[in-house]
Amino acid sequence: MKVYVMRHGETDWNARHLFQGQVNTSLNEKGREQARKARERVRELGLSFDCVYSSPIDRAAQTIEIVTGLDRSQIHLDDRLKEMNFGPLDETPFEKDSPAVGHLFDKPSAYEAPEGAETFAELEARLSSFLQDLRKNHPGESILVGCHGCAMRILLVLLGYLPLDEIWNQGIGNCAIIELTLGEDDGFHVTQMYETQDWFGQK
Q1: Domain 2-9+31-80+120-200 CATH class label
Q2: What is the largest CA-CA distance in the chain?
Q3: Helix (H) or strand (E) holding 41
Q4: Global pTM value
């Protein structure tokens, strides 16, 4: 069983360096072009998918629609794939040194989510639940999953690929893909990372 987890293309909020979390933002034209180029790259790699899932947030679902050519109604939308809920930080500038972000960037293990926001542990728990259901419901299949940058970093933490305090050192560009393979130990393992600079020179 293989799972290909893809980050969405660029949005205007990405370009403006704003927290967007679970805000329902859409791709901008650059993001749509990134998704089209990702579609070409997926075809060149010979990847095919038995089933397709996505976060229901527009920027992720739109990316998967472009990459696969499927209509939204043909994609399994799952709330567990949403981006981390940053609560009051959403719509604010992405400033790592701002007191408002607390330890979100400098020491994630010490981050205390503000009221209305989500903790890293809560995000990890819903991603774990999603993977467990994939393993149960799609044995031996190839699955494409539309997701988000912070959620994908926490997925890497969940799978033991990197420690929580190093998540921001891991680049995950727009339309990057993490390939997971189900091992003989019945656990998922990171077997390949396809970064965007390899596809269209865009970090």
Answers
A1: alpha beta
A2: 47
A3: helix 29-44
A4: 0.94
